[in-house]
Amino acid sequence: MPVYSYKCKDCGKEFDILVGVGEGNEELKCEKCGSKDIERLLSIFGTGGSSSDSSSSVCTTPT
User: Which domain holds residue 4?
Assistant: First the structure.
């Protein structure tokens, strides 16, 4: 299940919501003030690799 990050435009609270597969469009609101004026944020995710390990970041195509 994906986790989406939101920010309330009224109070500035940032929070995450776990969204189930196949669920409908439910009313999303701020968990602090109850406002429905929220925006979804872009999330940064990790790949599990190390950026200093050059061998894991090289993609080669067989010729």
Answer: 1-43
Answer yes or no: is 56 within a domain: no
What global pTM score does this model have? 0.59
**Would residue 52 count as lying in a domain?**
no
Q: Does 21 reside within a domain?
A: yes
Residue burial 8-43, b: 16+ Cβ < 10 Å; e: rest: beeeeeeeeeeeeeeeeeeeeebeeeeeeebeeeee
Average confidence (pLDDT) per 10 residues, the chain, 63 residues: 90 89 74 95 68 56 67
The reply to whether 53 falls in a domain is no
CA–CA separation, 24 and 55 (whole Å): 43
Beta-carbon-side half-sphere exposure of residue 29 (alpha carbons within 13 Å)? 6
